[in-house]
Known about the structure:
By secondary structure, the chain is α/β, with parallel strands linked by helices. It has helices at residues 27-30, 59-68, 109-112, 133-140, 156-165, 179-188, 201-209, 228-236, 254-267, 277-284, and strands spanning 41-44, 73-80, 86-88, 117-118, 124-125, 146-150, 172-175, 193-197, 217-221, 241-244, 271-274.
Amino acid sequence: xxxxxxxxxxxxxxxxxxxCRQPHQSLQEYFKxxxxxxxxxxxxxxxxxxxxxxxxxxLQTLQYTYSIAPCVIQEMDIxxxxxxxxLMMHDxxxxxxxxxxxxINEMPYNELKQxxxxxxxxxVLTNQHIPQLQEILQFAKGKMILALxxxxxxxxxxxxxxxxxxxxxxxxFVICYSIADAxxxxxxxxxxxxxxxxxxxxxxxxxxxSGIPFQNLVALTPTVLQEKAFYDKIHSMGIMxxxxxxxxxxxxxxxxxxxxxxxxxxKGGDIICTDSLQTVRQLFR
Length: 285
């Protein structure tokens, strides 16, 4: 497979080539920890919507973020409708991000697709609807890396069937909420890359004993920065670490946020998962 990552031509959006996936490079190789990187990878949380004009988890937001930052990892959320259609939605309810109300798993897709999405400021967006996972994967294929956060109640079998049907196994990694879930997925899909919580030292030990190949893992580490030895241990396994800054560091005053982003990188955070995409890109480019 040839990966067609396009260049960014706008001087305001310089891309760090060190972060771009290379043609024919597997996700295992891309996420293998190596010493010497000059700056962290960046993950756009919920596709990193801007305050106005773009909704979280929308196809239009994915397209926009890709146009300004084609090499960032795109994180997104998946839920299931009443009739088992896989849709992009963070919350279990529709109220915050759409013109609808109630639980997404209590409505059929034919009703859900009529709803409009809202941006971060609460504005209704007349051209943005809840996308299906299939639409997202079809757009992303061969262009970018997606982090699929499979929310509770989502059928992993249906999710993986959609991934396989769209031939995007080499473009995605799946966020797992337990070691047991990751073990099950690894047995059925031995080349699938997964992100798993490395929450404490005991957790690391359990993952070491799980039998999951380390090359198939990305480590999700606590939002509270740990001692450097914690990240060093994960790096010794050849695994990259991800630190989530949304809802915490992203909300700090500018000077404090910049200092803490740098601290996270210096301690061993290889991937910064953020709502503040442009701020983090500017800081590290």
